[in-house]
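A.,

Following up on our hallway conversation. Structure tokens first:
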């Protein structure tokens, strides 16, 4: 049986999160005046919508009320999703960051900055200046997503019309343009 409050909270809340189709990323309790704040962090492939957050909040509240894990002191329940400053520590974090720019501090020293191309159980493929570099998770000391302002959409061309073909500026079919009227 777990001995710390955090471990007991995780044991109680992981099935609640799983039932809502999300992963329980973190649980923390911090003092806030005469109360405490119980913060539950959830995430999922494809993100977490407000309905899932509400479901986790409601079901967590029910589970907490039925247990004694928080004791008798009042607390505020907060259910949230991870911010961009969350460290990339699990394969699912890397998988959810495909397409994002990351900075990786290596165990052997040095840093690698690149865009996540793919992630699997053993490591991650990064696009580093146009070259793919494989980094094993065991070689990562620390990693985080980098915030990018004004990132260009790689799929769009200069005029922003990703679907246009050369000579088709108006979007109309040009095959019948040579027919005589």
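Then the amino acids I'd put at each of the 181 positions:
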């Amino acid at each position: 049986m777990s001995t710390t409050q955090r471990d007991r909270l995780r044991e109680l809340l992981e099935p609640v999160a799983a039932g809502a189709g999300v992963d329980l990323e973190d649980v923390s309790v911090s003092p806030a005046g005469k109360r405490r704040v119980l913060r539950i962090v959830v995430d999922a492939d494809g993100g977490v919508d407000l309905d899932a957050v509400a479901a986790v909040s409601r079901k967590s509240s029910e589970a907490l009320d039925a247990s004694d894990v928080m004791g008798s002191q009042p607390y505020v329940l907060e259910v949230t999703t991870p911010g961009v400053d969350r460290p990339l520590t699990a394969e699912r974090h890397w998988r959810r960051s495909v397409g994002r720019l990351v900075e990786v501090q290596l165990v052997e020293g040095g840093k690698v900055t690149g865009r996540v191309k793919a992630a699997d159980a053993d490591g991650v493929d990064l696009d580093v200046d146009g070259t793919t570099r494989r980094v094993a998770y065991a070689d990562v000391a620390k990693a985080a997503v980098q915030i990018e302002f004004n990132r260009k959409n790689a799929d769009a061309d200069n005029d922003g019309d990703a679907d246009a073909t050369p000579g088709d500026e108006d979007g109309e079919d040009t095959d019948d343009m040579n027919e005589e009227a």
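The longest strand covers residues 23-32. Curious whether your intuition agrees with the design.

B.
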